[in-house]
Write a structure and sequence with these properties.
- This protein has about 475 residues and is an all-alpha fold.
- The protein has one domain (about 30-470).
- α7 (about 140-145) packs across α8 (about 155-165), α8 runs parallel beside α11 and α12 runs antiparallel to α17 (about 400-410).
- The two termini are about 35 Å apart.
- It is globular and about 70 Å long.
- The chain is about 85% helix and about 0% strand.
Length: about 475
């Protein structure tokens, strides 16, 4: 049944209507370049800090030193697919609800937006509880499935136990962060993310070295920081002109679930394929490393894991810029201001291209210096990581078209093209390339898989986004404020 909105709830739903009306005016009339840059500052900061504390986990466990440190890094690396799965489900619900919320606010339908906000959070916490239950029952079998062998299965299982324990809070955080930024209030999301990240970086050395917990200490630090971050994000929903989240407004109807699936399916495809591809990549990397006595299974997995954290930091700046664009796209598309969506899209393409050019030059020219971010890692791990980083940076430029295209399609609610493009790199292209190329070219084939997957995704994105841009050429609707 639809929950009853009593007079008190209705007043809260319409809280600060003048502020919301002013926001709608700004989002639909101010220059899109100014809006994107202003909204991107907190989202870029959030994404870079998130990448930094992911990097910190690997940095501190690598500082254990020697082969023990390599095994600890390998444990963190194979656990990345579980983190990707949790993120996939959190973003699935969060972006699914948030995409609808931004368009509803553009139509000035505050009541429906408020209902979706509560529904999204309830669903995220429920999915997190299900992941917690499954993970805590089978940590070691899951660790083996992800590619851990007897060399580092125990630190992997120890790491996973704490990650699974924090799954509900992590999914809730992803959901709330998306909802806040799609309302154009990314600063509140940034505060929650940054507070958790700073705490994580502070707790890592205490647990890993001070208490001698190794990789398990890194996971415990993550679990605690994610819980604190969730509480900060939840408190942010009761500030400013944000939609207040009340459990009584949650409505798990087929209509709402369908809207969440429509808006969040591309995120689920993207992150879900990432979780699968990371698992396959680690297993194939382990086999390739084990086949070469000069390398070894744990060493090659650790090298790929290090590079993934570095490339994640480069890509997170792009994603942060795109996240500043998404509320501009959602509000204006919901209000029928199609010309503004086009201008915002092309501005995002140019801005991302500038960053990608810088990242590509940095990675190609200074790869050995970049991997020295992990000074205590074994020399052979750093040597392999430098080569892998150069391969991956060679194709980073494709993000200037792929990321803006995918974010536009998803925010507008174009489910099919958005989902196809979202799963293209990690699913349609990368997984087959990882399975085929190493059989033909060994380690070089494995290193080539990711840049070739990026190139194929770029070629697919061109016709998909061309259709969207043609749709956006229709006349603007009359704007009533």
């Amino acid at each position: 049944m639809r929950p009853c909105f009593c007079e008190k709830d209705q007043n809260m739903s319409n809280q600060r209507p003048d502020l919301r009306q002013e926001k709608l005016r700004r989002m639909t009339t101010e220059p899109v370049q100014k809006l994107i840059l202003k909204l991107s500052i907190p989202t870029i900061a959030s994404m870079l800090v998130t990448a930094l504390y992911n990097l910190a986990d690997t940095f501190f466990v690598s500082s254990i030193g020697g082969y023990a440190g390599t095994c600890a890094v390998a444990a963190v690396s194979v656990s990345l697919s579980v983190m990707a799965l949790i993120q996939a489900l959190g973003f699935f619900v969060g972006q699914g609800a948030a995409n609808f919320i931004s368009r509803a606010l553009g139509r000035q339908d505050v009541r429906k937006a408020s209902e979706m906000a509560a529904t999204g959070l309830l669903l995220a916490l429920g999915l997190g509880a299900a992941v917690l239950a499954a993970g805590e029952l089978f940590p070691e079998p899951i660790a083996r499935l992800l590619g851990a062998d007897e060399e580092f299965i125990q630190p992997t299982a120890d790491y996973l136990r704490w990650i699974f324990a924090a799954a509900p809070m992590m999914m809730g955080s992803f959901c709330l962060n998306n909802q806040l930024r799609f309302q154009g209030n990314a600063v509140y999301g940034m505060v929650g993310v940054v507070s958790g990240a700073v705490l994580n970086i502070g707790l890592d050395p205490l647990f890993i070295h001070g208490l001698g917990m190794g990789a398990e200490g890194a996971a415990l630090a993550t679990a605690i920081s994610q819980t604190v971050g969730f509480c900060v994000l939840l408190s942010g929903t009761f500030r400013g002109d944000n939609l207040r989240i009340h459990p009584s407004r949650a409505r798990l109807s087929w209509e709402n679930l369908g809207l969440i699936v429509q808006g969040g399916l591309p995120s689920l495809m993207r992150q879900g394929c990432a979780a699968i591809s990371v698992t396959i990549l680690n297993r194939v990397a382990g086999d390739v490393g084990a086949a070469d006595p000069a390398i070894g299974r744990a060493v090659l997995i650790a090298a790929f894991g290090m590079v993934s954290k570095i490339v994640m930091m480069m890509n997170n700046a792009v994603i942060g810029l795109g996240q500043g664009y998404q509320p501009v796209c959602g509000f204006n598309y919901g209000a029928g201001q199609y010309s503004r969506v086009r201008r915002a899209f092309w501005f995002l393409v140019k801005a991302v291209a500038c960053w990608c050019l810088f990242a590509m030059v940095l990675g190609e020219l200074f790869a050995p210096q970049v991997v020295k971010l992990f000074p205590d890692a074994e020399p052979r791990v750093r040597e392999l990581a430098a080569v892998i980083l150069r391969f991956q940076c060679a194709a980073i430029w494709v993000n200037c078209w792929v990321v803006p295209s995918n974010m536009t399609q998803q925010t507008m609610g174009w489910v099919v093209p958005a989902s196809v493009l979202a799963m293209a790199r990690q699913g349609l292209f990368l997984i087959p390339l990882v399975l085929i190329l190493p059989r033909l070219f060994g380690l070089t084939g494995l290193e080539l898989a990711q840049p070739l997957g990026d190139l194929c995704t770029f070629l697919l994105a061109i016709p998909l986004q061309t259709r969207v841009l043609k749709h956006l050429k229709q006349p603007d609707k009359e704007l009533i404020l």
